[in-house]
Amino acid sequence: MAAFPFTIGATDGKARAGVLATPRGEIRTPAFMPVGTAGTVKALTVEQVAATGADILLGNTYHLMLRPTAERVRRLGGLHRFMRWEKPILTDSGGFQVMSLSKISKVTEDAVTFQSHLDGSRHTLSPERSMEIQADLLGADIVMQLDELVALPATPGKAAEAMRRSARWGERSKAAFGTRDTQALFGIQQGGVDEALRRESAERMLETGFDGYAIGGLAVGEGHQAMVEVLDFAPAMLPADRPRYLMGVGKPIDIVEAVARGVDMFDCVLPTRSGRHGQAWTWDGPINLKNARFAEDEAPLDAASEVSASRDYSKAYLHHLVKANEILGQVLLSWHNLAFFQALMAELRAAISDGRMEAFRRSFAARQTSGSDISA
């Protein structure tokens, strides 16, 4: 029996709208998790993040174990208390950052050893250590197994090796995590873009048994079309009665296409990262506030939004802030972008419940394509 009840309230095609109930609150799905890498969603207070409608945040094992250290977070009351976020937190295992950020990393069957990107100090991350950090020291509500990620494109042999090691690490993660009533453990499907490897990964995950299931190893260089093709078969390999989480995705169009294929949960740094670089996401596609055409545009980004950043500031003012490199510009655009992503999730949940998911999907794709403005 899974730790957290997951209730699917409506379906439309493969798309599902539901609720994952945790002791710290309900997570409405499809759900987007803002990324709080180092104990903060960059440039925003937790009150601002909550005001966008976020039900859950993501924290990062790799960054927190290096600074301020997971042991210190534990001494200070756990991650929720440390960052003043009372709702659920999901932590990723640190595997992705070990592969992509560390100066030197070495993978063995036992663990991955790496040098910190901060100061070159050496560390070891095993499935057991990852469980200790996430569940016992940080106190996450949803914990991710340690997996081995490979960048795409990868040879079939490399993808298979990493997938099978991830499956073994999943078994060790489950054994170390044990059975808990107030915390959940998610497994991670790997296998690159190969359908047979994805199926083998899913079958091994089911043998181990997890509270939820993630699709890993996408949005790492394979491109939108290849990702969508994997999502045509990968979600259906995972249990229909548990949450399905697509890790590290992504762009709004990617999210809509993934929801249409049965995915329930997402995370990505895109809203805040693009906000810090002058880009705002809108229903008509992304716009670049650096562009001169906004210099005297008195309209807000979204007059109908309940979030002040979207509703109360003109594009002209935002253009000025971005051009002047004022911190407030980064704050307001990050806040607006998170609000847009949460509004998108609310629209997706409504479209599924109303039986109009396919119409929403077509309309959204047409508007996003026609309105793209990422120049300059």
Question: Can you describe what's shown?
Answer:
The protein has helices spanning 46-51, 61-66, 70-75, 79-83, 95-100, 127-138, 156-177, 195-208, 224-231, 252-260, 270-276, 308-311, 315-323, 327-354, 357-370, and strands at residues 6-12, 15-22, 25-29, 31-36, 57-60, 89-92, 105-107, 112-115, 122-125, 142-144, 184-189, 212-215, 244-246, 265-268, 279-282, 285-288. With 376 residues, the chain is of the alpha/beta class. The strands form 4 sheets. An 8-stranded parallel barrel has the order 4-5-6-10-11-12-13-14, surrounded by 5 helices. Strand 7 (105-107) and strand 8 form a beta hairpin. The longest helix has 28 residues, at 327-354. It is globular and about 60 Å long. It starts with 5 loop residues before the first strand and ends in a 6-residue tail after the last helix. Mean pLDDT is 95; it is low at 372-376.
Question: Topology, please?
Answer:
Elements: E1 6-12, E2 15-22, E3 25-29, E4 31-36, H1 46-51, E5 57-60, H2 61-66, H3 70-75, H4 79-83, E6 89-92, H5 95-100, E7 105-107, E8 112-115, E9 122-125, H6 127-138, E10 142-144, H7 156-177, E11 184-189, H8 195-208, E12 212-215, H9 224-231, E13 244-246, H10 252-260, E14 265-268, H11 270-276, E15 279-282, E16 285-288, H12 308-311, H13 315-323, H14 327-354, H15 357-370
Parallel strand pairs: 4-5, 4-14, 5-6, 6-10, 10-11, 11-12, 12-13, 13-14
Antiparallel strand pairs: 1-2, 2-3, 7-8, 8-9, 15-16
